[in-house]
Amino acid sequence: MTEFLWFLTAVLLHELGHILCARLLGIPLNGCSVRPCGALLTFDFSRTSYFREGCVHLAGAGTGILSAVLALRIFGEPAEVFAGISVVLAAVNLLPVRGFDGGGVLHCLLSAVLPPELSEKICRTVSLTVLLLLWTAVLWVELRVRADAAMLCFVLYVMIFQTEIVNFT
Question: Does residue 168 surpass a pLDDT of 60?
Fold first, then answer.
C-alpha cells in the first residue's frame, strides 16, 4: 500500500510540474482526465512556439527527477522507493511515443524543422516502432525471467491507448 501512495505522489508531482511550467509560460490548461496508468493533461499550444511547448512536455519528467534527488538528499534511505518510482515514471514518460512527454518533445523538434505532414508521419512511425520494440522486450523478459504479466498488460494498454490518440494507418 505504501508503494501505491508513493506512486500517486510521484504522478501528482509530475503533473504539477507540467501545470506549473505551462502557467509560467502563459499556456492555458484545457482539461485533465485520469487514466488507469496516470493522468492526461491537455493544453492549448495553438498560440505558442514549439520550444515553449517542448518545455511543458519536459517539465513533468524534470519535476520527477528533481523531486527524487531532493527526497534522497533530505530523507535519505526512507525515500528510496519514492525516488525510484519518480525516476522510472520520468523515464517511461520520456519514451518517444505519442501521448507520452517524449512523444510531445519529438513532435515539437520535428515540427520546428519539417512540414506538418512529414512530422506527423515520422512521429507515428517512431511511436509504433518504439511500442513494438517495448512489447518485444517486455515479452522476452517475461518469458525468460518470470511469469508475471503486469508489464505485458501495461504495454498492451499503452498500445491500445495510442490507437485512440494517433491513427497509425
Answer: no
Contact (CB, 8 A) for 68 and 83: yes
Q: Bin 74: left if φ > 0, else alpha if -120 < ψ < 50, else beta.
A: alpha
Strand blocks (E) in 9-89: 29-35, 38-43
Which runs of consecutive H residues, i.e. helices, occur in the chain? 2-24, 50-75, 80-93, 101-113, 116-144, 150-165
* CA distances to 37, 58, 131 from 134, in Å: 16, 21, 5
Q: Alpha-carbon distance 86 to 63, whole Å?
A: 9
Distance CA 127, CA 104 (A): 11
Looking at residue 37, the DSSP 8-state letter turns out to be T
129 pLDDT above the threshold of 60? yes
**Position of cell 493533461?**
41
- Give me the count of residues in the chain: 169
